[in-house]
Amino acid sequence: MSPFSFIAAVQRAAGGRRAHDHRGHCQHHGRHGNAHPHAPHPDHHGGRHHDHHPRHASAGGDWFSGGAHGRGDADGFGGDGRGFTRSRKVSSDDLQLMLLGLLEQNPSHGYELIKALGALSNGFYTPSPGMVYPALTYLEELGYATVEQEGAKKRYHLAEPGKAHLDANRERLMLMFNKLKHVARKMDYMRQAWSGQPRETGPEGEDTRTGWLPEFVEARQALKRALLDRTDASPAEQRRIAGILARATDEINGKSGA
User: Fold this and answer.
1) Structure confidence at residue 5 as a pLDDT band (50, 70, 90)
2) Which of 6, 8, 128, 173 is the most exposed place for a label (fewest CB within 10 A)?
3) Counting beta carbons within 10 angstroms of the beta carbon of residue 26, is it exposed (0 to 12), middle (13 to 18) or buried (19 or more)?
4) Does residue 156 or residue 82 have the better pLDDT?
């Protein structure tokens, strides 16, 4: 299943479950100017919206980029898998892009987008209304999204400028959604391991919940361990390892003849 087919399925599931507090979300959105301290303010400075838009990540970096300079661990999830739940910060730019990606699949209410992101990541990343509604207001101000009023609620639609922005950032968006999908599967895999119950397997021996083969998981873990063992490697050894990893990356990407 492609990332966007998976997202559409998640959105349909999320749309079928109405959050019990969605009225509060809608009220929050209608009063974003004073309901949340970080909501965007009206533009008084010649369109300099960025001056008012909240930043959802600290100066130390965010979950997608890793560290302050965009350097994360090998897979962006805390190395050995036990630490990936310790940091769930997502920058405002990343959140906006993901919201546009979801709107490309289905026009949605704000609380439906919140539920969709939570479902996509298996609960790992569920942004708060105080993050999502100001971001949606900002996208509307930019002209990236349009709003359809439905009584007290607002349904957001992707606008043409938003589609152009998505097209220009498609690879980045795919990476973010794939990270959310990966961490959702990783959480399922680890919960099953901690439960002590035998795994249900498919015809190829894959775990039926995640689709992962045992040898695939073991190979990833072995690579991480091997790299940790070489943390004090000399420059010459680092170059040798970098060459091995570059060749492996090419093979994984189908570029073995390059």
Assistant:
1) low
2) 128
3) buried
4) 156
Q: Distance (Å, rounded) from C-alpha 115 to C-alpha 105?
A: 14
How far CA 58 is from CA of 38, 50, 51, 98, in Å, comes to 14, 16, 16, 19
What is the spatial distance between Cα 215 and Cα 252, in angstroms, rounded to a whole number? 15
The tokens for 232 are 């004090």
- DSSP label at residue 58: B
The answer to whether residues 166 and 101 touch, using CB atoms and an 8 Å cutoff, is yes
Q: How far apart are CA 62 and CA 55, in angstroms?
A: 11
Q: Is pLDDT at 172 greater than 90 in this prediction?
A: yes
Give the mean pLDDT of the chain. Answer: 75
Cβ-Cβ contacts under 8 Å for 92 (sequence gap 6 or more): 53, 54, 55, 56, 57, 135, 138
- How far apart, in Å, do the first and last CA atoms of the chain sit? 28
Using an 8 Å Cβ cutoff, are 112 and 93 in contact? no
Q: How far apart (Å, rounded) are the C-alpha atoms in residues 220 and 202?
A: 20
| CB 181, CB 120: distance < 8 Å | yes
